[in-house]
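Hi everyone,

Forwarding the result from last night's run.
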Amino acid sequence: MAQLNVSNLTFYYKGSFDNIFEQVSFSIDTNWKLGFIGRNGKGKTTFLNLLLGKYEYQGSISSSVLFDYFPYQTDPEGMERTAMELSETWKTGCEDWKIMCELDKLGVDAEVLYRPFGTLSPGERTKVMLAVLFSRENDFLLIDEPTNHLDQKSRETVKKYLSGKKGFILVSHDRDLLDACIDHVLVLNRKTIEVQAGDFSVWWENKNRKDAFARRENEKHKKEITKLKKASDRTREWADKNERTKIGFDPLKEPERNISTRSYIGAKTKKMQSRVKQMEYRIGREIEEKEGLLQDIEDVADLKMMPQKYHKEVLVSAKEYGLKYTDAKGYLFEDLNLEIRQGERVFLNGANGCGKSSLIKVILIRCGNAEEGTGRDKLEPERKKICADTGILKEHQWEEKGELRTAAGLKISYISQDTSFLRGSIREFCEERSLDESLFCSILRQLGMERVQFAKEIQDFSEGQKKKVLIASSLLTPAHLYIWDEPLNYIDVFSRMQIEELLTMFQPTMLVVEHDVRFREKIATRVVEIR
């Protein structure tokens, strides 16, 4: 067992307005199964890159182990090569038979190693890279968001696999995965970093207790400060009043006073002023303690949205519906029966590639039509823009069977799983979509983004921050139906909980693709399986 020691770590990006880390110190054991938790943009991926030696920093990071990072980067040329060929470039000295053994634990046939990497599904790519990652012993592994874009079955496989491993840092916002796989947490709080034993749920319970205690203590401090301020003001008033009596008096009205009384009054006033200073010192100390108590509390702000009521009960319906692309051999899915009614939150579930996103694309294009359930070429200007921005308005040629109908004039707010089209400043983004910039930035602040981020170009945001841009845009768009395609990829735990509270409160009509089990259990009114 070795240790990883971080001492007085300070790091910032060139041209950045603020430090990512400042005087950070902690130690961890390299045989731990460590979950890495924190808000988007707090520096989780940056810290992993610091361990890999990619950036210069102040302070020290010391350990006797070798680090390796997931996911491995592959350029377009590499996509043409087999996974077996790529494995040597990813991890020098790894042995083929060990990779095959790890693949067997992941339930994958070794033949995938001999297929071009670009032809593998997202789940197969993830499992191949994990197999390579764990094919050498004694490395300390840095695993960054392994379940993004994976279907539920693949997530379960990865969860079971990682639960049997140790010696890694796992960056994930999936609460179910963290509870199954980790025995310690490394948490980037608002102002501090803490290391704690236990899984996510244990840490979250402890955090809630700690926050509740801090709030109670904070209220006590506030009351004490109020009392001290009143006493200080009263004593200062007495001192000032007493001080004014030092000079000038009427001998007829105050015959007992004489010139020597002045020194007595001065000494008495000095005593009162000393008491005022002591009270002010205590007030300052109480305020300092109060601020220290609340520095790490995540006050989850209440979000708002503007769902609209439609005049019909059923917004989308499918009967014995099937969909296929004309150049494909078979249908993506067949015999789908689906109704989305007012107030329902329907979740689509199924394996990667079964057609969930394709169904969403068809519904989006259908909802741009002038007449209910007809044609595919009369897109409204704003719908056309949404489709173009998200890359779905291409010359798709598809074949359908059965019936798919969408209500006429349906207003949709859409979140794409893709963020690559995001460019430019926040102001430009809001102007293009006719969004109120101040409200938009307010939602981003409530989702945990710092104000300094607003001066950056959106393409320079982290993946989680880009996703929050899309979520904020959707929340500000009044709609009858909210269609969200994997909205929580890269989104931090705190924001996921905020969104859960929001949807529970406003109960909008939704069609959602999302593989976060906890989120689906809390939000879905119905789950539709696509096979």
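The radius of gyration is 30 Å.

Cheers,
N.
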